Protein 1
Amino acid sequence: AQTVTQSQPEMSVQEAETVTLSCTYDTSESDYYLFWYKQPPSRQMILVIRQEAYKQQNATENRFSVNFQKAAKSFSLKISDSQLGDAAMYFCAYRSESKSTFGDGTTLTVKP
Amino acid sequence: ETGVTQTPRHLVMGMTNKKSLKCEQHLGHNAMYWYKQSAKKPLELMFVYSLEERVENNSVPSRFSPECPNSSHLFLHLHTLQPEDSALYLCASSQDLLAEAYEQYFGPGTRLTVT
């Protein structure tokens, strides 16, 4: 069964600094996608970034980038130049043809 | 807003009440989902529908009854709930169930409190 583990329930970062959120997953499938979603307080969950398992190049979206290590089944999210608006709960998600699984989430606090 | 709407946004109900949660997506998606989000288990998949057909039911108690009359609407009918059912209920949609490239679009959720 596919599992997604986010080992950091809470993280904090100083405004303008960089923070990395960890995610590991377990799967026997070879074709899948990985996602990071952001859920701000009292607001809708939205997609931050996605990574296709077949692509070796790490995905980047402005200040958000991932470190995808397929052999290690690791998919961390790096947020550069953190802003107050980045404060939210972040979910790592795995999706294949047969399964969609979310991690338990990491609550990120941004300190001014 | 991401094109997925949910009503009501807040609901307080007694254990003997019957109520329904509504979800509507305006994105032309074929798959819709119900999730339960609580402090104890942050995101639990409850039901999955693809083209109005239920394809997944993750051991959800029968006091939760989903309905998908068409690909744009999804309901969750509630009856004789328990206090531990209090949670945020999220609806989501995706373009296709089996296409792993497609992300899910979430609604704002219904905050349910069972008294």
Protein 2
Amino acid sequence: GAGVSQSPSNKVTEKGKDVELRCDPISGHTALYWYRQRLGQGLEFLIYFQGNSAPDKSGLPSDRFSAERTGESVSTLTIQRTQQEDSAVYLCASSQSFTVFYTEAFFGQGTRLTVV
Amino acid sequence: DAKTTQPTSMDCAEGRAANLPCNHSTISGNEYVYWYRQIHSQGPQYIIHGLKNNETNEMASLIITEDRKSSTLILPHATLRDTAVYYCIVRVANTNAGKSTFGDGTTLTVKP
């Protein structure tokens, strides 16, 4: 596609429910990142995928958060047993490789998650 | 990564230069200073980066002090569309920059 696509754009869920967020990276981009951005705050790195290597999960805040990616395609971020503090915009980004992230990373429009 | 501190907010008149400061007193010798901005809830947009020399591109200029403990991003002729949150981060070049956590940044409001 022309850019990084995320779905849904908005999600309202009840506390305790599981949610799945989807990211379609730019074709050919081997690096994929997930971030969380709470209202009025900066981006918080969550997880990084590079090709078929094991993902770097060092930013995941708890074991309720997990993500998958098959090869260099779609990624899903799953939040289990959602809590109100999970309410945020979740952004996905992709780049051809991690070395060119700064100048050539492309971000999706994000999924705004609201836990009620 | 070195920690950065930025003012929470700044105002600037349209057409004037916007000077956004960033302190990074614990920066190490191989860390670069990078600036991004984020408009509304869009993804961050890269602006400029530098190591120790001043840098200029079509968007902005970056002035880094001689001791490298602080820097200033300059938007020479701010427009209303430059209203955004500006993030200063430091990172070793060619490391996995995408793993950076952006701080709260400076909210720049350009006023007519």
